[in-house]
Amino acid sequence: MKINKQIILTTLVILLCNFLGFSEVIEKIYAVVNGELITYSELKSAELDLTRALAQQYEGEELAKQVAEMKKTLLERLIEQKLILSYAKEKNYDVDGEVELLIKDVKKQNNLNTDEELRRALASQGINFEEWKKQIKENRIQGRFISEMIGPKINIDSSAIMEYYKKNIKDYTLPLKLTLNCIFLDKANYLGERLLKEKMATIDGEMKASSFEEVAKKYTELPGGEILLGEFKQGELDSALEEAALKLKKEEISGWVETDNGWYILQLIKRVEPQLVEYKNVRAEIENKLRMEEQNKKLDEYIEELKRESYIKIYEDF
User: In CATH, what number is assigned to the domain containing residue 182?
Assistant: First the structure.
């Protein structure tokens, strides 16, 4: 699609002159992509949407960091979206049916019966229904275009999938797991050493004549009197507890182990050794991962190609 730069500039001047003829606020233009304007309000709307999405994953300082990183590339991302959309629109894709199905699914997931209920729900979050629907449609058009232009160029063969599996075998190995019972004495309850030693001696003495379970139920100070400490993957336990637990055989009992919050005696209930996940069970997952990586690479290359054939003017950084 060849773009006449002079026509674009002339058209923009005419538009601006028309705007000046009315008592309306002229919105700041940050960039032009094949005749499509990127305005301040569009950038702020995208910033708000992405910030809202990031807030679902992060909070505090990490959220602020992620938002700052997002803003650095926001204008470039919008330029690329406009670029793809400008070419995709030439294909005249009919995605109305897909859009309606997606909207229907959103209503179902949120227990909404009508479009009006959906409008109100979106409005409560500061989202305009028509703009939201337009964005969905544009996303579907872009997705269809990318699939058509990039999809045929992607070929992930079985040898590449197997090679990735072998190179990343650690990622497909389930870690060792330990299930433990315990007797726990809370440090907050033993400010004096004498009281602690007396309690430990009592427990040690009773374990010589009774089962671990009986003694644990009688003396443990875990919330609710629980004796099951839990199931842990290697690396999840306190280092001192893990070191002691790894030395135990099934039903064996450790000595006292001190941690920051108290003292434990451990009993190993179950030990599951590391297990390799079979290739057949992760093949599809690996193929999808490699396909996405290749698609992103090809898409970046294709976008650079489109940029060379297009008119893009950036007036100001955001």
Answer: 3.10.50.40
Using CA atoms, how far residue 96 sits from 81, 87, 102, 136, in Å, is 19, 18, 10, 10
| CB-based contact 98:140 (threshold 8 Å) | yes
- Give residue 141's domain range: 93-153
Instruction: Select from 122, 153, 184 the last residue of a domain.
Output: 153
31, 317 in Cβ contact below 8 A? no
Final residue of a structural domain among 273, 290, 313:
273
Query: Is 221:185 a contact under the CB 8 Å cutoff?
Result: yes
Instruction: Give the strands of the sheet with 177-186, arranged side by side.
Output: 228-233, 177-186, 262-272, 257-258
Of 85, 83, 54, 84, nearest to 67 by C-alpha is 54
Q: Are residue 123 and residue 207 in the same domain, yes or no? A: no
Taking a C-beta distance cutoff of 8 angstroms, is the pair 318, 30 a contact?
Answer: yes
* Segments in the chain forming alpha helices (H): 5-20, 40-54, 60-88, 96-109, 115-123, 129-150, 158-167, 193-207, 212-219, 239-246, 279-308
Q: Give the per-residue pLDDT at 18.
A: 42
Cα–chain center distance at 26: 38
The structure's pTM equals 0.65
Which has the closest alpha carbon to 313: 5, 4, 1?
5
Q: What is the pLDDT of residues 236-257, one digit of tens each?
A: 999 999 999 999 999 999 999 9
